[in-house]
Amino acid sequence: MRVAVFGTKAYDRRFLGAANERFGHELTFLEPRLDSLTVALAEGHDAVCIFVNDRADAEVLTQLAESGVRLVALRCAGYNNVDLAAAERLGVAVVRVPAYSPHAVAEFTVGLMLALDRQIHRAWARVRENNFALDGLIGRNLHGRTLGVVGTGRIGALVARTMRLGFGCTVLASDVIEDATLTEAGIRYVPRETLLAEAEIVTLHCPLTPETRHLIDAAAIAAARPGLMVINTSRGALIDTGALIEGLKSRKIGGVALDVYEQEADLFFEDLSSEIIQDDVFQRLLTFPNVLVTGHQAFLTEEALEAIAETTLGSISAAERGEPLLHRVDRGAVRPAGAAPHKA
Ligand code: NAD
């Protein structure tokens, strides 16, 4: 198939290019992201391959369909940037990579938790300046703390297990479906409100949907335990950033580690070090000593990039042969494999 690969970075070219030696598609690597201004670049292609911040809304999908594109291949797990109803109406199939390496994201999440809790990011900066003072770097043991995991799919389940079995945390979980193997491991499912009220650390691993949008908002923060630590490696809009900043200013929130941000599409994946950042909310966030932000890199391991390339190109080949699409995203919830229905 002729595939327009939008938002290409050097690592996409490397891993997709290497895997494609076996698949033999015609890949056009394009640097711009897909949106209503760049959609014309898809002309002459059968499929587009996109990432988290490309925009496949109704307008873009209509233009894609008109130019003959029949497949949108997301080289990521989340699909909140695709208007699935419009895709269905237009006869454009959408595939994703549901589980390229949940370990990559889960391990990064635990890394953020450790770094934030023990202030490793601040210690690193100090030592580079020959400042070996320890004042202000007191952390807390993770052992014995209460962690709340929102969304116990592939990634959340790994984080929950690691923190329960590896670190000895009390782990509360909330999900619309319950994983019995986690309950057996001593992880307790509770309603989300209970989790948010009892947890000392909350980590988010549910998808972004209308129901989960701003699940950490002013009300949730007001009901939380003082000093709550918030970790988000899922999607930025799960958190109301304005409310988060107010929570940090009032010290109700004790620390924040984010790999994703509500307005990240204007910032992440680009070198803006010589630019003037116009997003005042993001800039305010960076001023807090107890906030650690990374630029959506939790997925970025060699294993994950290999798996993403393999699954994406495999789906494109299946579409070319007219076979059923294993990783097709349809409207409605996508359930993680092996999870039992919620009992409550
Ligand atoms: P998954 O589909 O395996 O798990 C998501 C879980 O969330 C499921 O168990 C689902 O039932 C649950 N869920 C759905 N609605 C919920 C709700 N209202 N409340 C609580 N739980 C709910 O997905 P995954 O592979 O574990 O990925 C989780 C998220 O991580 C993805 O949605 C994606 O946005 C994000 N992600 C981020 C990166 C990164 O690099 N930062 C990489 C991969 C995935």
Descriptive account of the structure:
The strands form three sheets. This protein has a seven-stranded parallel sheet, with helices on both faces. The protein has a five-stranded parallel sheet with strand order 2-1-3-4-5, with helices on both faces. Residues 333-344 have low confidence and may be disordered. It has helices at 10-23, 58-66, 84-90, 102-118, 120-128, 154-166, 180-184, 192-198, 218-223, 241-249, 280-286, 302-320, and strands spanning 2-5, 26-29, 47-50, 71-74, 93-95, 146-150, 170-174, 177-178, 188-189, 201-204, 228-232, 253-258, 291-293, 340-341. It is globular and about 60 Å long. The protein contains twelve helices and 14 strands. Residues 77-78, 99, 102, 105, 150-156, 174-177, 205-207, 211-212, 233-235, 259-260, 296, 298-299, 334, 336, 339 line the site of nicotinamide-adenine-dinucleotide (NAD).
**Residue ranges: pLDDT <50 for 5 or more in a row?**
333-344
Determine the number of helices (DSSP H or I, runs of at least 4 residues): 12
In the sheet with the most strands, the strands line up as: 9-7-6-10-11-12-13
Cα end-to-end separation? 46 Å
- Count of individual beta strands: 14
What characteristic shape results from the CA principal axes? globular
Average pLDDT reading: 94
The percentage helix is 25-40%
